[in-house]
Amino acid sequence: MALTRSKSLKAKKFGTPTTPTSTTPKAPSPRTTGGTPTATAPQTVTKPTGQRGAIPQSAAGIAVQEKFKTQLQNNPIVKAATQALSNLSQIGKTYNFQRFATPTEKDLHQRKIDEETQKIQDVEHKLIEIELAGNVNQIINALETGKQVYPDWFQNNILWVKTGQITSQAFLDSYYYLSNQGQIHAPIVEAIIEEPIIELPELLPEVIAEPQPDDSINTNMVTQQVINFNIINGRAVGSIKFEATNNFNPYYYGKNIVNIIQFKDPNGVNILTSVKQNRLNFTETERDEIINYDEDMHGNTRATVESFVWEWIDKPAGAFSNKYTIEISEAEPAKPLSTGIMGAGVGGAIGILILLGFIADSRRKK
């Protein structure tokens, strides 16, 4: 026998519903002070249009996010996954609930719907996280390549989001806040002000004459002193000491100068066929030199020795000392004569000319 539901059983179980009666609201009672109360119009409260705590994004950031979102939506893999989850959800929602007879089956069906809905939400969350991560990467690239200037301490935020210590959303919130505060911005390029070029008249280089060295010479720069000089066994043997005086020009320190010596017989004829010359070289610490002589007198027992100190062998004008004359013989010691170039008068000048001719002649013979 088929079982049928009885309305009376339902009524017994749950009771017969009664129709609610409407009650007329009472009129407001007058105030105790008397008089008829007046109706008060409700006050209009203006709500803020902005969201409290929301950080606005810059136009550039919004454009980047929209572009990245469009790229994700056009991704074939993402589109396929989203479509599949959407289909499952639609199937669950449009399923004929009348075929389920028990609450357990209805609960199972609802669980499947909830699972598919959760899957869709998970995909959406992943898409959002991918979008945020891409936006973060673009921002970090702009910061690290110098396209944007940021405070030094913000480097910590970059490190934290790279290592996962903060979320992409937390990083973006901080970034957009600093951007709106003007602490993160594009580099400020200062305008280059070109100053007019003022052409100056060409100035000729100043010629500074180099000081010429003082190479003057005078006869008071060197003294001569005989040490010993005699004719021994037909030879003139002796020594003369040359000393630089306090008047010696320092320019000639370390430079060679020349001593010229000639021997004459009592008739004034040169005994030697060539003049003898020796180098002299004075320094600040070595201011004297001794020259030794040993020459054949060709049978003469008496002779006159004439000694000169010149700048060079053919420059008698550059005399460092007066001509020094010594009488020598076999029997008597040397007798220096105090004569000089300037003090010898015409005879001394003629003697110099003869010496120069003798020097020239001896050079030709060589």
Model description:
- A hairpin with a 5-residue loop joins strand 7 and strand 8 (335-337).
- Helix 2 packs across helix 4 and helix 3 packs antiparallel against helix 4 (103-144).
- By secondary structure, the protein is an alpha+beta fold.
- The strands form two sheets. A five-stranded antiparallel β-sheet has the order 4-3-6-7-8, with no helix packed on it.
- It folds into two domains: 59-180; 222-365, Immunoglobulin-like.
- The chain has helices at 7-14, 59-73, 76-93, 103-144, 155-162, 168-180, 345-365, and strands spanning 222-232, 235-244, 257-264, 276-280, 288-296, 302-310, 324-329, 335-337.
- The longest helix has 42 residues, at 103-144.
- Helix content is 34%, strand content 17%.
Helix content: 25-40%
Poorly predicted regions: 1-22, 29-40, 44-55, 340-350
Residue-averaged pLDDT: 75
Strand element count = 8
SSE run: HHHHHHEEEEEEEEH
Count of discrete domains: 2
- Distance between termini? 170 Å
Report the C-alpha radius of gyration, rounded. 65 Å
Number of helices: 7
CATH architecture of the largest domain: Sandwich
